Amino acid sequence: LLPALADVTGLLDRYLEKANTEYENGNLENAYKYINQAMSLSKNEENNSNVLYFAQTIYTKRLEKIKKDSSYINLVEIQANLEQYPEIQNATIKKLVAQIQAQQQLDEEKAKKAEADAIKAEQKKQFTQQMQLLQEQSKAQQQQTKAQQEQARIQQEQAKLQQQQSQETVKTYQELKETLTTGLGEVVKSNNKNAEATGKSVKSVIIV
């Protein structure tokens, strides 16, 4: 048992040393991994205050990073390890977990609101575009109706002009006809007078 205990102690020391080295080098993720391995070995140890203190330090730093980066997916893993090693939790860690959870809820609400606002904005944009399209179609239809009305007016004027021209043609024809008829009548009448005068002269000559 003693050799086995010595092996465990030696392995625990190595994990603590690696965790400390990674922590000092700023590699928080690796330090977190090694301190968890150390915690698994020291769980049944009576004197594990050094491991526990260092674990609390690393957990606190990692929670602070999660809060700063809003990397909420990493909180799930930490909470699972805190359930496995509840002795790690202290007032600072509990406070950080509660703050991150509240921050996560607030961010999710903001994200939902932003999504809803984006949907409303898109719907408003589509509605505005549809209204503009309808207005353009209405304007085009009004212009088309106006053009048709103008064309109808021109056609009416042309028809009226043609009617006037036809009436003037008929009137001119009637006037010409009357002129010709009157003129012809005058010619005939004149011819008749001349014929009568000639007849009288002839008759007088014969009598003589």
> What is the makeup of the main sheet?
none
| Rg, nearest Å | 59 Å
Shape annotation = rod-shaped
Distance between the terminal alpha carbons, to the nearest Å? 196 Å
Regions with little confidence, pLDDT below 50 for 5+ residues: 202-208
What sequence of helices (H) and strands (E) makes up the elements? HHHHH
Oligomer description:
single chain
- Helices, by number, come to 5
Can you give the helix content as a percent range?
over 70%
**What's the rounded overall pLDDT mean?**
87
Class by alpha and beta content: mainly alpha
Record field, number of beta strands: 0
DSSP strand (E) fraction? under 5%
Structural summary, described in words:
90% of the residues lie in helices and 0% in strands. Residues 202-208 have low confidence and may be disordered. It has five helices and no strands. Helix 1 (2-24) runs antiparallel to helix 2 (28-42), helix 2 (28-42) runs antiparallel to helix 3 (49-69) and helix 3 (49-69) runs parallel beside helix 5 (91-207). It is mainly alpha-helical and 208 residues long.
Concise account of the structure shown:
The protein has 208 residues and is mainly alpha-helical. 90% of the residues lie in helices and 0% in strands. It is built from five helices and no strands.
